[in-house]
Amino acid sequence: MMLNFGRALVIVSALAAWPAVALDSPAFSTAMDTRVSVNVDLTATVDNTVRKKVLKESAVRSLGQQNITFAESMSSLEIVEAFTQKSDGRRVPIDPANIPRCRERPRRSLSA
Amino acid sequence: VKTLIFPDVEVGDTVVYVSREQRHDKRIPGHFFFPVMLAQSVPYSAYRLTVNAPKSVELGVHFSGDGLTHEVSATGDIQRHVFNYEPKAWVPEEPGAVSAWDRNPQLIVTTLQSMADLGAGYWSAMQGKDVVTTEIQTLADAITKRIASRRAQAEAIDHWVKKNIRYVLVYLGSSGMTPNPAATVLKNKYGDCKDHVALTGALLKAKGIASEQALISMGNMYRLPELPVPLFNHVMLYLPEFGLYTDSTASTAAFGVLPVGSYDKPVLHISVAGSLTARTPPMNAEDHVSTSKTSVTVTAEGVVRGETQQTSTGVFGSVARQIAARIETEGREKYAEILLRSFNRPGTGIFEPATPSDLTEPYSMQASFVLNDRLQMPLIGERDIPFGMPIHKRPGVWPFGQRVANRKTNFLCFAARQIEEIDVTFAAGLALPRKPNGGTIDTSHFSFKSAYEMNGRTLKIRREFTSKVASQVCLKDMEQEISQPLQQVMRSLGTRMVFGDRSHAAIAP
User: Are A1 and B39 in contact (CB < 8 Å)?
Assistant: First the structure.
């Protein structure tokens, strides 16, 4: 789990530092680049680029659908782009219609 | 929540998304904070964080953990902090481990200078809701009518709120951090943790009993980060006059008994007097006692029937009341069946009625049962010892969680006393079992004693396990010390009755 109140924009080039397939190796690898611009009024813009590489079959399902949570009372979130990058470099973009939005499930917080 | 469904994903592909978030987080007014925890269980190949801020914004920075670096630069009026993380290892989570915040690489960028800043921020949102209205005063007087002791008055108020105000989760985006006024909570008869604190605080105030709000992180986080950031996710009350914490959202807990995850935790007290960091008390084994007494008879035909009486205090009492509520819902006979099946000893039974909202201690429950499987006759060789229908874990099973060889992380552990007494009475004419050997295990972390006795036609068994841990965080190296002794405890629980030939040795520590 990563607790991060932001997400970001610059792409990290390095990826896949983990050995391809081993019994005790992870099923995927994650690279994140987060850029936070703080304003004088202490609001902020958080640009986040997340790249997750599928290393094992079991990760196809878990990475194929991802939930991005945010609190409407504290932020607004826009998906700038999202795509599957094939191993030959091709990009298969997500149809914007395939970005459903629903209410967050209850979780324990100070509002809970 | 936004859900991204990626097309055409195969091994070797990379799913990519780019997002932009506009943050206007007003939880702690006048402050910016950005905490990041880089859990070693997440297979990062790389992580980079860049923070650009006006130089006029005074940022505090903390980073810790292998593989994290930090560079600062400036361009014109902008200060830039760049953090790079190159993970050294991927470490899957271990069962029972403390929070990754307590042990993994992390970084914090914040304008909050101190816990006092943080407390003031919380207090600005949460103060002033415990107003004593006429209705609240009348209610407080009614609840405490004919109760002289101030502590007993506080207890009565605590119990009233637990019984009458439903605890509800509220969507994060709906209410932020501001509680409803106490009068509104009373009218609604429900509320979240902040609402509970507002109403309970108001009722106590109506009787002249002071309280402080105590912010806490539920879950497995046992340390505060190096710099102040609002990672608390729950609030309860501290009553300075009695030196105790109480959580009215824990509706099945007796006064002063906390949810098991709230012991030995850092807390931030906030009140009109300011803020103060403190720690909730660690568990004391004598405050959390589970006693299961089972009387079993074995008929001449091998039918096994009996009764189990369960008494519980502390966190065991809280769980017992939850089970009592479940029994109310599922049915007294149905739940007995479910429980027996969970022991792999199917049968029928019935629980005596119990009141889940009865917060007196010890809390008692009773059940009777008949096992489906008879003891195989004649009684020669080994047979399982029936242990009845305990609603809690058997001695030694719960306080230290799962065993993990070569632990790499500290883990949660709890102080408690678990007692199991079993009397097995054999019908006239049946062979009697040999008396198994009892034993004692005494380590610096727990003690265990098993005793067996033949009294006429009754085999009497007593097992008692006491976890003596002084903190709810056990060091990883302790695993090596406790694993073998705990295996002996488990073997004792599995002791079988031996009939006839002496070659059938009983297993006991």
Answer: yes
> Which ipTM score applies to this complex?
0.82
Tally the C-alpha atoms within 13 A of residue A103's C-alpha that lie toward its C-beta.
8
Please report how many Cα atoms fall inside a 13 Å half-sphere around the Cα of residue A12, on the Cβ side: 32
What distance in Å separates the CA atoms of residue B372 and residue B379, rounded to the nearest whole number? 17
Residues of B in contact with A103 (CB under 8 A): 1, 171
For residue A104, the distance in angstroms to the closest alpha carbon of chain B comes to 5
Show residues of chain B in contact with A40, CB under 8 Å.
Answer: 54, 56-57
Per-residue pLDDT, averaged over A87-99, amounts to: 88
Secondary structure percentages of chain B, helix, strand, coil, to 5: 25, 35, 45
Helix (H) / strand (E) containing B463: strand B458-467
Instruction: For residue B400, give the nearest of B383, B418, B382, B388 by alpha carbon.
Output: B418
Strand B44-54 versus strand A28-38 pairing type: parallel
Cβ(B396)–Cβ(B448) under 8 Å?
A: yes
Average pLDDT, 10 consecutive residues per value, chain B (509 residues) = 92 97 86 95 96 97 95 96 94 95 96 93 88 97 97 98 91 61 96 95 98 95 95 95 97 97 97 94 98 98 98 98 96 97 97 95 98 95 96 97 94 98 97 96 97 98 98 97 97 95 51
Q: Which structure tokens are listed for A41?
A: 């009024």
